[in-house]
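USER:
Try writing one entry.

ASSISTANT:
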Amino acid sequence: MKNPIAALLILAITNAAMSQEKNDPWLDSLIRSQASPFLLNVLNQPDTFQYQFIYTKIDRDKNNKPHFKNYYLHVNKDRYFNPASMVKLPTALLALEKINKLKEYGVDKYSTMLTDSAYDRQTKVVWDSTSADGMPSVAHYVKKIFLVSDNDAYNRLYEFVGQQTLNERLWKMGYKDARITRRFVTMTEDQNRHTNPIRFKRYSDLLYIQPPANNKKNFDFSKKIFVGNAHYNREDSLIKAPMDFTTHNNFPLEYLQQIIQAVMFPGATPSSKRFRLTPDDYRFLWQYMSEKPSESEFPSYDTSEYFDSYTKFFFFKANKGSIPPELRSFNKTGWSYGFLTDACYIVDLKNNVEFMLSGTIYTNKDGVLNDDKYEYEQTGYPWFKEMGTIIYNFELQRPRTFMPDLSEFKLQYK
């Protein structure tokens, strides 16, 4: 070894990174004992596919109170994955939190929300053809975020909450490594710091005006993040260097699991991690986190494009799989740059089974980002389907001291 000191330093860095990783041998053994050759091949290449996986076992006591136990595979908050649309989940929740603070003005989540512009590249929204009354609202944006992961709906709620409020609230809740810095439209860092003025109305009555905002707080971008070995830039030119994600959104998988758990089980969530939502807000969220596009009237979706498993990766999306009526996934997904992510609470209302799954995987064989050549269909969705199926089959047969009462999750759909 020409430079033993350098070799030791690399080894120390590698060991430090591995020490941050959470692994449960029991979970690894369970999955491998049931895995197909395809799945074993993926599991044997954790560095290539950069997968992380959390299985949350839920047991109820005699009072139906849930108790949670997490099991992990290669979960590491310091291993970056692009969260893509996963950031829509906390943004939607914090938009509902913020709208509740405006009730003294007569504003609620169904109030008409008119977005104005006051800074470079900001755009206006004064109507919404997909809503029942043709007008935009926080409720309708939240609905579209969960039904089909609508990007514009996220952008509008990002603007309503404001970049600074969005991040500071998450940090205060304990999500210290969370970072939401951008809309899903091409903008500079400065443009993303500025958010729009907004008006709330009921019919012709003006209820509340929110002025434009500018986040003047600095983010910690000291940790550099590079992915891949080449990428296409905004001008569609091939750059033979990794893509820089240092200033992009960041949301560790464990945070997403905790947030889904907080939404589905607010009564079993510590107050510091609980969102300031009403019982009606929770019922509203459960409805649209689990509803299928074919069950939605406003918006009405082309189900050849937005098929029922469009945003349901675990179990269902591979081969556009159908969803049995007794199964519901209360979830949020994200996909971009070769990364696929899903965090969900699964219920089987026929067999009285419940559990949570959270996972992310990277499928980019050529290492080039922004070329739209990712192995989502060949590797990503089949990985989610088989991982989920193995846990589901285990859940179907495992003994329970007390069977759960899942009646609160039996919702009415179209």
Remarks:
- The longest helix spans residues 376-397.
- The radius of gyration is 22 Å.
- The chain has one domain: 21-409.
